[in-house]
Amino acid sequence: MPDEKIVTCSGIMQDSHLGHGEKVLVNIAQPSSRGLRQAKYVLPDLKLLVNTGFTAGQVCTDLQLLQRSKAEIMQYARSRK
Questions:
Q1: Angle at 38 (CA atoms; ends 32, 41), nearest 5 degrees
Q2: Which pTM was predicted?
Q3: Which residues contact 9 (CB under 8 A, 6 or more apart)?
Q4: Which of 11, 40, 52, 77 has the highest CB neighbour count under 10 A?
């Protein structure tokens, strides 16, 4: 990504608490002068689990990216089984 962010995701995980039963964990990391900023999200819910160092604006931008890319990320995660 242009701002040096690194995006990784898990494979599909089964979760009986979700109606559809599937979730994917997405990790977004970015080097900074103080170390590494990191945020973890759950798809398809777009839920923020952890935020270390990102501003509210950066989290909003990440959520917009994940919303636009959710179908592709879920499909990629399914292919990793």
A1: 155
A2: 0.85
A3: 24, 25, 26, 27, 43, 73, 76, 77
A4: 77
Q: How far apart are CA 62 and CA 14, in angstroms?
A: 24
Q: By C-alpha distance, which of 28, 24, 37 is closest to 70?
A: 24
Per residue in 41-80, pLDDT (tens digit) is: 999 999 999 999 999 999 999 999 999 999 999 999 989 7
Q: Compute the distance between CA of residue 72 and CA of residue 12 in angstroms, rounded to an integer.
A: 13
Dihedral, CA of residue 28, residue 9, residue 43 and residue 18, to nearest 10:
-140
- Which residues lie below 8 Å from residue 2, measured CB to CB, with a gap of 6+? none
Token representation of residue 59 = 């989290």
